[in-house]
Amino acid sequence: MDNDFKNPSVKGFWWKRFFYTVTGATNDYELGPNWFASVMGTGIIANAAASLPLLSDKLHGFALIVWCFASCMLVGLVLATCVLLLKRSNVWKKHFRDPMMAQFYGAPPMAMLTVAGGTLLLGDSVLGQELALKITWILWFIGTIAGLGSAIIIPFRLFTTFKVRPDSAFGGWLMPVVPPMVSAAIGAMLVPYTPVGVLRETMFYLCFSMFGLSLVAALIIISMIWSRLAHHGTSGTSRVPTLWIVLGPLGQSMTAAGILGTVAEGAVSSKIAYGFELFAVLYSVPVFGFVLLWTCLATLLTLRARRRQMRFALTYWAFTFPVGTCVTGIAQLAHHTGLPLFKWISIFYYIGLLTAWTVAAFGTTKGMITGHLFRPPPPTVNPIVSVKEPLEIGE
Fold this sequence. Notes:
With 395 residues, the chain is mainly alpha-helical.
């Protein structure tokens, strides 16, 4: 490690001196909203394991451990963020004004919602059902309000303030608008715990409304990303992993549709409930086809960027949560159809999720040890430009 980055003269407790000395970080370290993607990517492992066909019972202990770890990560990041805001609020203001970093303000609410889902699915064995349910409701309310805020404020700033070029559309644009879809899925799990009658019916329809809010916005952005790739190509930089975020709203919408179809019977009239259950299959099967297509395209584009020496960045966590939502979405499809094909494909995606988490966690740990993930990124002289490979003579 380069000694120029070390800062052994820092005053304070031994752990603070150790942190700055070993990692080489400086007092200018930054902690942005993109760090919460690590909580999303870790928590979804537990949630997916709890709903995985054929293996959920066998993976219960593993899922519980992962949920506890994700919960600790969430608490730690929230505390670290509060300390940073009290000492240097200008850091998050700077991120809020940055056209790329501002998109990741959708990550904190999704991190809360992911842990909320794990708390409801797994927390009762540690916390008891009553306390687990209370924590789930609190996290859901906070995550939903913050998520709706990000879905409104960040696109508004994109429309009115941020300067973008024709090739600026990237997967990160989905981050602010996906939280309501996560709220819809976790909220659907809470529908049976809502008082019977008007409140439960209202909760059900609010969740389905958030499903539509997020889905329509996501489809528009996905179309813009496809257009950018077709007209301008890819950047080949660490922005490429954000292409996997496209799977996030797709998989999460399948999850939300599936759970809403399951809980509809106790929330709305039987006639309408049958329609929602039917919609879960009619919607999810076509989306499943596009999920397979985008998985192949994103894999090829990632391998292409990797061959061009794509460096590690926190964007690697985009490999995790979106793939995890595909696991839960396909698992819901397996639940409603009973088809073995969907059961085994959900397991295949879960193996991919574990592999992606290992890569992202290893790179993050290495970056924390060396300290470069804590240091402010160097100022960008030239914008990230997407380019295509030149055609060979005769093509």
